[in-house]
Structure formats: structure tokens, C-alpha cells
Amino acid sequence: MSAPTKLMTYDDLLALADDGQRYELFDGVLIVPPAASFYHGRIVLELIRILDAYLTPRGLGRNLFTAPVDVRLTNLRVVQPDLLYIGPDRPEAFASPPAIQGAPDLAIEILSSNRHHDLVVKLGYYEQAGVREYWIVDPEVETLTLYVLVDGRFVEQPHDGNVSRSVVLPGLEVNIAAIFANV
Question: All domains of the chain, ordered by start, with CATH?
């Protein structure tokens, strides 16, 4: 009979030596995501360009973050979205550095080797934590799936042809094909 595994907390995560790895906690279990591909990185850069062009003129550019940054959803759930946005009305999110506390307003994941983590596990975590909008970008089929939290549940937002429209960032229209054309 094996001994029960001790669940890790956020404090345990902070106590790990900085070895350059990205770490996440999935219900107290330490996850080490593999390094992202260069294509993944180019998609992140393209999304930063799109989001920055929307946020900066509105004085919101300082609220966009890229991994690695810990987002502490609970003491046993710590994730690092590829991109995230925190609205200016949420100063409490920055109250306990180094992690962002609680749900970001927008979380974006670019699918890579462990698609299950983003499509199932993190989708459930983000929904339960109250992330208002979740984008899943799939490089394999060149899609962007946009979920909006409605009455505590994620609802997939339809897109108009090749354009997705953010609810959290009103007026932001994302040309899905352009994300992949420029990478």
C-alpha cells in the first residue's frame, strides 16, 4: 500500500528553487508544462500586438501580462495562462505579489502538446474561479474559440465569419485568420 501523496500549496510552490521551469498546481499536484514551440511564441506575439493596439490607446496596456506569471485561483490551483488581462477596477488582484490573486478578466491559452490541460482542466478551473472571458487558440486548425462567463458557466461565443468579438473588451474585434497569417 502506497503512502498518500502530500498536496502542494502555493507556499510550497514558492519554496521551490528557481530552475527556469514553469510550474502550475492542478488541485495540489505539481505540473511542469513542456517548453512552447517557436510557433506558439509567434502566436503569443501576434496576440500581444492585437491586444496592445486595443489596450494602450485606452490607457489599459499595463494590465496585460504574459507567462510566466502565477495566477493563484486557490491555494491548490495556480496556473500560468499564456496571456491574461486584469481590468483597472481590480487592484486587489495585485495585492499579494508575486502572484496575481484570483481570476483574471481574460485568460488566453494557445494549445500545445497537452491539449487536455487547456481544453478541459483549465477551462473548468477558469469557469469555477469566475474568469469572465477565456480564449483558446488552436494552432493546428487555426481557430480561436471564445468563451464568456454567463451565470457562472462558460458559453461559447459565435464568431462572425472570421472575426471574434470580445465581451470583456468592448469593441475589440479579432480577425482570426490574421493571427495565423502573420506568424
Answer: 36-181 (3.90.1570.10)
Percent of the chain with pLDDT strictly greater than 90 = 65
Report the alpha-carbon distance of residue 122 to residue 116 in Å, rounded: 9
pLDDT in tens, 102-151: 999 999 999 987 888 888 999 999 999 999 999 999 999 999 999 999 99
DSSP 150-182: ETTEEEEEP-BTTEEE-SSSTT-EEEHHHHHHT
36 DSSP assignment: P
Decide: helix, strand or coil at residue 118: helix
Q: Are 30 and 8 in contact (CB under 8 A)?
A: yes
H-state helical runs in 36-175? 38-55, 115-116, 122-129
